[in-house]
């Protein structure tokens, strides 16, 4: 597998770091763009396992303020990350002169790819891996009582130090994330886009019930397929069998839908 690392100019004063993985003996049927989750980067073990396991060329990206990318990140900046995806999609089409077959995201990145699809409707295949639907409440135990107290007192607190940066949580970040409305996935054009949702039945970070809500909004097949990986948690790679089932589900779904995507869908 040939890896090429490069930067993409966002036009907003910073670059995104990305890596293109071209595989030998793989037909040039388009690129699968990989999007990482919260407090992660393009070296995510979950995403690297997918890149290695699927029979397609792939591209992974560090969202702004993460990994080797410039810019800043925040807790509720999904819309900024959607525009990061837009930059990468444009780069693949205009600079690499290749089609974008699919966008695949994990966790926060999965919410991002669904938001991207609902806004732009221009990439035929979307893989949502363990996406959160209900953002109205901050997950229990995410922040300590002391951190919440500091938030009320100072308006912000340092959550963690990540990628040699301080990850700051602000009052406006909490308001932004808790107002995120994932019901916009109903705007995804079923004639142009098909979606695969994969979720672990024992995910303790994002409940599996969220996957069933997405299924109601996006289904039925062939517009949306739901795969529940029994006994799997949020990260998959901590169990080789769960990781294998997840990767095989994605690869087989891409195989099933690639002809439709390349022949029937527009790639603007």
TrEMBL record:
<dbReference type="GO" id="GO:0016787">
    <property type="term" value="F:hydrolase activity"/>
</dbReference>
<dbReference type="InterPro" id="IPR022742">
    <property type="entry name" value="Hydrolase_4"/>
</dbReference>
<protein>
    <submittedName>
        <fullName>Alpha/Beta hydrolase protein</fullName>
    </submittedName>
</protein>
<dbReference type="Pfam" id="PF12146">
    <property type="entry name" value="Hydrolase_4"/>
</dbReference>
<feature type="domain" description="Serine aminopeptidase S33">
    <location>
        <begin position="29"/>
        <end position="133"/>
    </location>
</feature>
<keyword id="KW-0378">Hydrolase</keyword>
<dbReference type="InterPro" id="IPR029058">
    <property type="entry name" value="AB_hydrolase_fold"/>
</dbReference>
